[in-house]
Amino acid sequence: MSKILIAYFSQTGNTKKVAEAIAAKTGGELADIAGPATPPASDLSAYDVVFVGTPNWAATFPPQVKDFLLSLNLAGKKLAVFVTHGRGGLGNIPDDLAKLLPDADKTEVYDGNLPDGLDAWLAAAGF
Ligand SMILES: Cc1cc2nc3c(=O)[nH]c(=O)nc-3n(C[C@H](O)[C@H](O)[C@H](O)COP(=O)(O)O)c2cc1C
Q1: Which of 14, 33, 61, 68 is most buried, judging by how many CB atoms fall within 10 Å of its CB?
Q2: Domain count, the chain
């Protein structure tokens, strides 16, 4: 069975809620990017799949999420990014992610404001 990390950045709880829903459906381990329990990037070797949850800030990632993504050694792993937002949708996040990590094995970016799509996205990602 895949070992799954669900790392999220959430100041007002929206992204955390989606992370928790993904954890409930996949059995993955939750980690707050801004909290002390985040496994260091060097410690990701145990995981096959890394979900990263982020709010849309000014149409892109918060700097904390960008730094976290850049710190990951994703060789041999799948990256699955999900986003929550106000009214701006995914903004530039899919494009910015493609530029930031062009070689990563990535799923489509998921719009966490559309909870009805979660099961289909997880199925497309192989869960
Ligand atoms: C600094 C800042 C910038 C934001 N910029 C956008 C934006 O450009 N587009 C958008 O749709 N929502 C924007 N939002 C709203 C957040 O993306 C939205 O409330 C998100 O769900 C917050 O996630 P959280 O509760 O996990 O922190 C912004 C919020 C903050 C705090």
Answers
A1: 61
A2: 1
Quick one: which atom of ligand 1 is closest to the CA of 9?
26
Instruction: Quick: pLDDT tens for 9-28.
Output: 999 999 999 999 999 999 99
Span from the CA of 109 to the centroid of ligand 1 (angstroms): 16
- Kindly report, residue by residue over 56-92, the tens digit of the pLDDT: 999 999 999 999 999 888 999 999 999 999 989 999 9
Q: Please choose from 8, 12, 85, 92 the residue to mutate so as to test ligand 1's pocket, defined by most ligand atoms within 8 A of CB.
A: 85
Atom from ligand 1 closest to the CA of residue 12:
25
4: left (phi over 0), alpha (psi -120 to 50) or beta: beta
Q: Is 98:105 a contact under the CB 8 Å cutoff?
A: no
Give the domain CATH number at 62: 3.40.50.360
